[in-house]
Amino acid sequence: MGALNKAELKAIKERLEKITQGQWIVRSMGHDCFVEAPEPPERKFGYAIEILGDDDNGYPTKRADCEFISHAPNDIAKLIDALEKTCQL
Prior knowledge:
This protein is α+β, with helices and mostly antiparallel strands. The chain has helices spanning 6-18, 62-87; strands spanning 25-29, 32-37, 49-52.
């Protein structure tokens, strides 16, 4: 993995702009957990969208994986801002 260039940063920003906007969260049901994104404005079903989830399969890092994914959109946006300010990309 090399240094980030302008084209790569642009591609990351474009991917980030295409995701479901809003606060992603982790929901728990018993021993299971899953990631939800808010309902997009163009949908009017009244419920969030399940992004990652499955039956309780017992793998030990599932909760950490869900937490990481749910925080990724905000974390990536903050990292892009910091990169643009400090690296003048």
